[in-house]
Amino acid sequence: MPELPEVETVRLELEPILVNQKILSASLVDAIPAKKYQDLELAIGQTIKSVNRRGKFLILELSNNLELIIHLGMTGVIAFKEFEKHVRVKLELENNSLYFQDVRRFGRFLVVKAKDYKSMPTLHKMGPEPFSKQFTNKQFFTALQKSNTALKTYLLSQKPVAGLGNIYVDEALWQVKINPQTKAKDISLAKVKRLRKAIIEILQASIEAQGTTLNDYRTVSGEVGEYANQLNVYGHTGEPCPRCKTEIERIILGGRSTHFCPKCQNIN
Ligand SMILES: [Zn+2]
């Protein structure tokens, strides 16, 4: 599913196209469940003032103290040309029309009062952005100390740091040789420092490659993200670890497919 690098790639493409455009109409097509598309009619007549991102959420600042929140879910794709199937939203703008396609319906496209995220607990309780000044070694260590759950599962919660999903957590933990099942509170400060650095570097490298396309993710212009070529463990089950040649293993952790090297990332 799209994670921070993919959403940031989309944001970078949308920003110059959308800013200062007025939304003329908003129409929904087979867009259920309704709560994922609530209050979209409030966007009509409003001007898009800025295109921001928080974690994996796109946040379009609208006039009239409103925000249009977009989450791509598993399969959401945004484009300025009509899709053949599975379009959920069409926004008619002054210069063009924006289409939101979502095959598996995990996405969201809704309007809220600015900063009112109570209906979206993940966004409401989200940790710092990984590229922000707030994401420090001290903050990260303190956050991890609070959790008795597996490190991977806690990172996916978005609470210690925003934007990571299955792919980039597996890659970052492999990079710093931490077993994904290690309890978050058991990570030493020295390892936390290396992990923080790896998270930032991996996310930046992926943004430069326009993200990772494994299945559905496409940029706004319809291209695939090229970072899949740089993945070391994610999706490489049974292949040799690039560092030690041990076979990469896949387990299910917290309900999520998890890839790691049993030698480099030994639990001890
Ligand atoms: Zn290895």
Overview of this protein structure:
It is built from six helices and ten strands, in the order αββββββββαααααββ. The protein is of the alpha+beta class. Helices cover 24% and strands 22% of the residues. Helix 1 packs across helix 6 and helix 5 crosses helix 6. 38% of the residues are buried. It has a four-stranded antiparallel beta sheet with strand order 1-6-7-5, with no helix packed on it. Strand 3 and strand 4 form a beta hairpin. The chain has two domains: 119 residues, MutM-like, N-terminal (N-terminal domain of MutM-like DNA repair proteins), CATH 3.20.190; 124 residues, Helicase, Ruva Protein, domain 3 (Orthogonal Bundle). The structure holds zinc ion. Zinc ion binds next to loops.
Which stretches are poorly predicted, pLDDT < 50 over at least 5 residues? none
Tell me the number of structural domains: 2
| Cross-sheet strand order for the largest sheet | 1-6-7-5
Order of helices and strands: HEEEEEEEEHHHHHEE
The CATH class of the largest domain is identified as: Mainly Alpha
Proper CATH architecture of the largest domain: Orthogonal Bundle
What binds here, in terms of ligands, is:
zinc ion
On the 0 to 100 scale, the average pLDDT is: 96
Helical percentage = 10-25%
Share in β-strands: 15-25%
Tally the beta strands: 10
The secondary structure category is alpha+beta
Give the biggest sheet. Answer: 4 strands, antiparallel
Q: If you consult CATH, what is the topology of the largest domain?
A: Helicase, Ruva Protein, domain 3
Q: How many distinct helices?
A: 6
